[in-house]
UniProtKB/TrEMBL annotation:
Signal peptide extent: none
Family matches, as InterPro entries: Cupin_2, QDO-like, RmlC-like_jellyroll, RmlC_Cupin_sf
Xref: SUPFAM superfamilies: RmlC-like cupins
Name of this protein: Cupin domain-containing protein
Pfam families associated with the record: Cupin_2
Domain Cupin type-2, residue spans: 32-100
Length: 144
């Protein structure tokens, strides 16, 4: 498999290792590298796929179904379909984790589209962000 390009936005770099084309849509696998202090813009859940996380460097704090879970090197976490979650880097150092998605219906297109909105300059258009999330099977959950 050829090396895939990195996608960078909002303090997060994504490097796909396997995408839907490599696995006949059975799974996707990517590294997330998160800058110090960065977090996902909005908690969300996945309609049609599960996600497993494996810590490589540093500690990422996931909130899964309302419970905080720290994932460090060698640790793992599972986020099933329909479970609200989000993550952030609360540390002063860069962190890295591996994400595996099954089935492989979620791939680089989502991150490329989101990056285009965040990297356009100025405040991101949250309406566009929500549309992209929904189109790719991620349902945003706004705080009350």
């Amino acid at each position: 498999m050829a090396t895939k390009e990195s996608i960078y936005f909002n303090g997060m770099e994504v490097r796909f290792k396997l995408d839907e084309h490599d696995t006949n849509k059975q799974m996707t696998m990517f590294e997330c590298i998160i800058d110090a202090g960065a977090k996902m813009p909005v908690p969300h859940y996945h309609e049609s796929f599960d996600e497993a996380i494996y810590g490589i460097e540093g500690v990422v704090t996931y909130t899964i179904d309302g419970k905080e879970t720290e994932v460090g090197p060698g640790d793992s976490a599972f986020v099933g379909r329909g479970i609200v979650h989000g993550f952030e880097n609360r540390t002063n150092e860069r962190i890295k984790f591996l994400a595996v998605i099954t089935p492989g219906i979620f791939g680089p297109a989502y991150f490329t589209e989101i990056a285009a909105v965040f990297n356009a300059g100025g405040a991101p258009d949250m309406g566009k962000i929500k549309d992209i999330l929904m189109r790719h099977g991620l349902v945003p959950v706004m705080s009350k």
